[in-house]
Amino acid sequence: MSDQVIIAILGCSGLWAVVLKLLDMWIARKTGVQKMLEEIKSSIELERHERKEKDAEDARNRILRFADECRRGIKHSEEFFIQINADVQFYELYCKAHPNFKNQRTAASELIISRAYQHCVENQDFL
Fold first, then answer.
1. I want to staple 127 with a disulfide (CB 3.0 to 4.6 A). Which of 15, 64, 77, 116 is the partner?
2. What does the pLDDT profile of the chain (127 residues) look like in tens digits?
3. Rounded to an integer, what distance in angstroms lies between the CA atom of residue 13 and that of residue 88?
4. Whole-prediction pTM
């Protein structure tokens, strides 16, 4: 082989070495970015789950408070009853979808609210 062929081969292999090194760096960087994106996605999903659980706890607290007010004879508007009913529906759906969530704490309160609503409807006794 001539010197020019050897130099050309070595030059090409050196170029390929640089290309392969750059390719390895690009793949490593891309993998790092993908890992970071997966961590961000996981964090967002956890935050979303925690937020929904907090919303369910807040709905439960509103249901219990409203039922206590009904027990004490405090009057409410029909719109407030409608809002509490939406809270009851959200809470029940959340409990069904999340069996590990501490649930079934509003059954008696829901019955009290239902009876108070019926009383208000029958006697036109809304606030």
1. 77
2. 555 554 455 555 666 677 677 777 777 777 777 777 788 778 888 888 889 999 999 999 999 999 999 999 999 999 999 999 999 999 999 999 988 887 778 889 999 999 999 999 999 888 8
3. 71
4. 0.68
Residue type, 38: E
Q: E strands of 4-106, at which residues?
A: none
Residue with tokens 């719109």: 79
Domain ranges of the chain: 3-123
Using the structure block, give the residue that is written with the tokens 């082989």: 1
Q: Residue 32 region, left (φ>0) first, then alpha (ψ -120 to 50), else beta?
A: alpha
Cα 58 vs. chain centroid, distance in angstroms? 15
Residue in the structure block whose two tokens are 């090409």: 12
Helices (H), the chain: 3-71, 78-97, 107-123
Three-class DSSP category at 22 = helix
- Buried/exposed code over 69-80 (b: 16+ C-beta within 10 A; e: otherwise): bbeeeeebeeee
